[in-house]
Amino acid sequence: MEGTEGQEGMGRRRPNIERGSVVSTQTPHSSEAGKPAGKPAGKPAGKPTGKPTGKPAPAKPMPGQPNGPGSWRRGRWVLLLLAVICAAPIAVSYFIYYVVKPTGGSTNYGALVEPQRPIPDSLVVTGADGKPLKLASLHGRWLMISVDNSACDKACVTKLYFMRQIRAAQGPERERVVEVWLRTDADKVADVIQTAYPNTDMLIADPAQLAAWLPADTGTRITDHIYLVDPNGNLMMRFPKDANPSKIKGDLTKLLKWSTIG
């Protein structure tokens, strides 16, 4: 009987388990070991974890756009500087035109012969071989022409020397240029001059025909100048008395550079 009652009593007894305590099932080697039992391992999804600050998140800067008020100010200064640079040439041109008032000028040293004078078809010269030929037959190259008598004084020799040096200074282009000495008489030329200027065409011409074709500057004669004839046979430039050979060279160099003829 006692055994039966003991069994019934044991059946009516319930284990005395304190509420609120949870037995941890973590092992000593678990990644959650040491944390209080009953707390969730992670934060609940969908609930904010911090206090709201009340300020919106700053906008991300766009690539290539200025950031901040300082950048915009710099941009305005750059635009202003570009506007000044673009307007400067116009302002300078207006200043020069209305204030300085340029009077104009030319870039060539020799005086242009206007209108151009073609070599007269009637101008016949005599060559070193004694045969007559038309001066116009020399067209096709640039002609540097000097006029003097056959005695050829110091001024005459100086012009011949200048023409020789100016032609030589053209380098490979010198073959486009011919030196011509138009003699106003048939007297013999000194051997020393013929030897010194073998590449100069020494031709005999009528002085009256030369005077009618070649213009002289005021107070000068045609024997004071060096003349330039283009490859088309047109007299187009006259250089002054006692000319500067370097400036004659400059004019001829430019003509040879920009001309496609001769």
Question: Can you describe what's shown?
Answer:
Among the domains are: 73-105; 111-258, Glutaredoxin, CATH 3.40.30. 33% of the residues lie in helices and 16% in strands. It has six helices and eight strands. It has helices at residues 2-12, 68-100, 154-168, 191-196, 207-213, 245-258; strands at 111-118, 124-126, 132-134, 142-148, 177-183, 200-204, 226-229, 234-239. It has a six-stranded mixed β-sheet with strand order 1-8-7-4-5-6, covered by helices on one side. Strands 2-3 form a two-stranded antiparallel sheet. A hairpin with a 5-residue loop joins strand 2 (124-126) and strand 3 (132-134). Helix 3 runs parallel beside helix 6 (245-258). The longest helix has 33 residues, at 68-100.
Characteristic key phrases:
six-stranded mixed β-sheet, 8 strands, alpha/beta, 262 residues, Glutaredoxin, 16% strand, disordered N terminus, elongated
In short:
By secondary structure, this protein is of the alpha/beta class. The protein has 6 helices and 8 strands; from the N terminus they run ααββββαβαβαββα.
Number of strands: 8
The percentage of residues in β strands lies in 15-25%
- Fraction in helix: 25-40%
Question: What's the architecture of the domain at 111-258 in CATH terms?
Answer: 3-Layer(aba) Sandwich
Walk me through the topology:
Elements: H1 2-12, H2 68-100, E1 111-118, E2 124-126, E3 132-134, E4 142-148, H3 154-168, E5 177-183, H4 191-196, E6 200-204, H5 207-213, E7 226-229, E8 234-239, H6 245-258
Parallel strand pairs: 4-5, 5-6
Antiparallel strand pairs: 1-8, 2-3, 4-7, 7-8
Helix pairs in contact: 3-6
